[in-house]
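Good morning,

Both structures are done.
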Amino acid sequence: MKSIEKIQNLIPIGYLFLVIMGILKESVYFYQLKINILKYSTIMDILISPIADLTSNPIVLLSLLLFAICILLILIFVYKYRHNDRVKKTFNIKENELQDNVLKAKLTQTFLLSISIGILSFFLGLGIGGGQKMVRKIKDNKLEYKQKLTFNTGETEAVFLIDSNSSYYFYLTPKNKSIKIAPIGAIKNIELNN
């Protein structure tokens, strides 16, 4: 019963951590494009951002789950063979830490720290790598303008859609390397050609 209460207490903290990582990822990504994304985001965009990143590609979600399972298996191995001299030396386990409750607490902290560092690295990597890739594509003019925006005025324009949120579209046009930001209300429809 106490373990369920501990998990219930950790869920909001874990989600808050994910939200902060989502904000960090979006900020780093758009900073490289010279956009302060927080000015253009609603609270809903910020709350959904980490979930959208994790579910955008099944490989991403599976990779993170595999990462967590690997760390968990390593810690189970350490717990099972805690009396082995090589395990004690490798994982810096002292004699006074071999008691069940002390070792479990240490391994739980190690697990949470490892998962936190892994998720931080994942989101920072997505933000930095994605931003650099987009800046390089814009600089080298290697964009494919497959999407078409139709504005409320009836004007249609071929664009490269960088991203969107609940309020704005961020896009480039073939004639201009400057990023344009259009409110969603100004767009009648968008045609995506994949």
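Second structure follows.
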Amino acid sequence: MTFKIAAPDDALRPRIQEKIDNLNKPKGSLGRLESLAMQVCMVQQTLEPSLAHPCHLLLGGDHGIEREGVSVSPREVTWQQMVNFTHGGGGVNMFCRQHGFKLRIVDVGVDHDLSSTPGIIDRKIARGTQNFLYGPAMTEEQFGQALNVGVELADDCVAEGCRVLCVGEMGIANTSPSSIWMHLFCHIPLERCIGAGAGLDSAGVRHKYEVLSRSLERYNQLSSLTSHLSPLIYFGGFEMVAAIGAMLRAAEQHLIILVDGFIMTACALAAIQLEPESRHYMVFTHCGDESGHRLMLDAMHAEPLLHLGLRLGEGTGALCAFPIVDSAVRMMNEMNNFKDAAITKYF
């Protein structure tokens, strides 16, 4: 699958800046809101931006590496939480209701039969990935399927008039592939990329490091025997690859992409590896409490909007940050300028 993603046309930038500078305020006094407004206007190529029909994709999938005890939570929590989301009882449900996001709950690879569960979109590729301690997590065909799931979901949102897309995940043990992607793409020592996930103690973190180290050794051995072995295919989760597909299609369609915590930042990192220009469309919403998230953000030169110590996932941090992006857009559309307000410029 190929994407046609280009950086926003820079020709409009001076006019956007002129509008921002002539709002009835001291120049630069609204700080980060001003740079956010610039980003949104550039993405949408307009002086009157919109965050119409915000959508949230909640993607579920299980991971074979969970069998190695790298998470404090067992894999059945994935499907149990997916069902809970359909009842409106999750953190993601609360924030979607609060901020007016349409929520789509999607089974991309949960190790449970959810096909008859009302409220869950069935896009299951397999009942979880393979254990990457011993070999690739998925096949190239499955990677393409997962990528296409994300593309189609993003297209559905665009068809409804969506201008801002948020992506979240539900998948026990998905901090493990995220840590490995961070290590490989950011060239950060593996031990600095690994954290407690859902709540591992120090012994659990050490065990996780040992498992992931052995997995990387196996990957490097196999890579030396083949001309191409993608770490996205070898270590990824179905829900993570679908997130990459959704982000890339959203960038192609000039949507604002709200990037959530550690896992979704790793997916954004992977998307940028595939299509570097997709970076222009991403708003990094928060720095989570997972060890390594700040390091990954720093490596990407990304400055998050919030730092609230969050590590729930599901896209909840991104949803929490949405009002800040909304304020930047409202500043552009609702704030008066010096001329119309008959106020003398005082800067």
